[in-house]
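Input record (one chain):
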Amino acid sequence: MRFSLRLDIINHRDVNVLAFHSGQHINYIINVYSDDNQSALHFLNRNIIDLNNTVVMTGDFNIRDSNWDPNYPHHSVHTKDLLTLAESLGLDLSPPVNPGPTRFADNPHDTNSVIDLAFINPNNSGFGQYSLHPKLCRPLDHVPLIIEVSINKTNIDNSFWSISKDSEEEKDFIKAITDGTLALDTSNITSKENLEAVAQQLADIFNEAWYSQAKKKRITKHSKEWWNHECTESINRYRNTGDIEHW
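The corresponding structure, as predicted from the sequence alone:
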């Protein structure tokens, strides 16, 4: 799993958008630090982004509210803006499995607080619950939030079928599909059913010719005989941008 920082989507010092692939989709993780003036939150609300595949938005939002801090009996004027932003991304406020303060006060006269939050996409089963780990925070004053990510075990087939260029097998393959196509009876294509039958016969000719001449090979570091400098530039561009159009 490869992550890329998407400055092309949001270029702000206090907002990081990370992209990663999951199957055929690009998913996003948004990390936010919103200062006492709520600069990042105001920026995000002024610059509405369309990231439907956001799975997590988390960070230090600097908002104390009784919705997530039982030791704070008040509501913040910024809470509505934060919840509206999360809703626009399809995210729900998620409580930790072990609730507690996420920031320890430096001053003994102040109380510890809950200002580090996580909003999670309820429709994404890969990102589950998260937990607080206060023992890992020192000497910092913020508690790390650790989320569980479910990764399914997948067997990746590292083999492929191939016919070597300019080989005898390639010549026999071309001859087989040429002879088979020329012998195909197309004189009775008078209905949709007949057309489909002829199309299936043609597919069978190609399939039989392929598997009679192709050989199963294993993918190794020496398999990419076609790789050149242009390929290297392309893959580096994709790794830098994370844009599926560069894949």
